[in-house]
Design a protein that fits this description.
The structure is a single chain. By secondary structure, the chain is of the alpha/beta class. The protein folds into two domains: 6-163, NAD(P)-binding Rossmann-like Domain (Rossmann fold, 3-Layer(aba) Sandwich); 176-257, no CATH class. The chain is 47% helix and 12% strand. It is built from ten helices and nine strands. The strands form two sheets. It has a seven-stranded mixed sheet, with helices on both faces. Helix 1 links the parallel strand 1 and strand 2.
Length: 261
């Protein structure tokens, strides 16, 4: 997929998701190195992905690669950037997977290094069905952007968006699966108890969700008209509580993500 060497700073969930997507696509992992302060996390990655190299508590090795993924929580990125900036190659590209910190802010922390990309990762990338919005620094050439896009497409779709929309996508697509997975799983349990096979449940949920989304956005009806298409709404008494949970939790979280630019 690419002849560039790849480094990951951080060996947690997001790195595992991306490596899984790479592996599932058939991509070679032999030119990938991952660092983390947790030797346990690194050993787990090494067991699952034997081709990769690991660098316990040493970020200087992955940061010298061509593509450097910054897979860390925003609150610890500052200290890490101070430590790695002497080791970044001038022609390297840093790919931040974190919300909050803008390309401009990251560049300032790196003494002006501006070959930076930001991407909001999406967990379904683990099965190559991710939706990972990306924003590129103006310092990247069209050829470099195309090479990165080809790499990201291994994980699913990677639409290029303006950077100011990335935090909104973090709420919508980055965290979005968590709003629904537990509900899908309960439907699976209930439908199985009703006598459907797991495959029948999978097919039913998948087609129902796809059709429901298309109906909401493509039927030419108002949201109220769409919701009135089915006369029986078993969860209607809980709808206001669910909507309130969305607003009370997601709106403050979005404001928090947009606090630092």
């Amino acid at each position: 997929m690419t002849d560039k060497t790849i480094g990951f700073i951080g060996g947690g969930r997001v790195t595992h998701i991306i490596l899984s997507g790479f592996k599932k696509s058939g991509m070679s992992l032999k030119d990938i190195i991952v660092s983390d302060i947790s030797i346990t996390s690194l050993n787990e990655l090494k067991t699952e992905f034997p081709e990769i190299d690991i660098s316990p508590n040493d970020n200087t090795k992955p940061v010298t690669n061509d593509f450097v993924f910054l897979a860390l929580h925003p609150r610890i990125i500052t200290d890490v950037l101070i430590n790695i900036k002497p080791y970044l190659k001038p022609n390297a590209i840093l790919i931040s997977l974190a919300p909050i910190l803008s390309i401009k802010k990251l560049s300032e922390m790196l003494n002006g290094f501006s070959r930076i990309v930001r991407m909001i990762p999406n967990a379904p990338s683990i099965v190559n069905y991710g939706y990972n919005p990306v924003a590129f620094s103006n310092d990247l050439t069209e050829i470099e952007k195309k090479e990165l896009t080809n790499l990201f497409k291994v994980l699913g779709e990677c639409p290029e968006v303006t950077e100011d929309k990335l935090e909104a996508y973090a709420i919508l697509t980055g965290m979005g699966p968590t709003y629904f997975w537990f509900q899908f799983n309960e439907l699976k349990k209930i439908a199985t108890d009703f006598g459907l096979t797991e495959q029948e449940v999978k097919n039913g949920i998948e087609k129902m969700i796809t059709g429901a989304i298309k109906t909401l956005f493509e039927a030419g009806l108002s949201p109220e008209q769409v919701m009135d298409l089915i006369p029986l709404r078993p969860l209607q008494d809980y709808e206001d509580k669910i909507k309130e949970a969305y607003h009370s939790m997601l709106e403050p979280l979005y404001k928090k993500l947009k606090r630092i630019t």
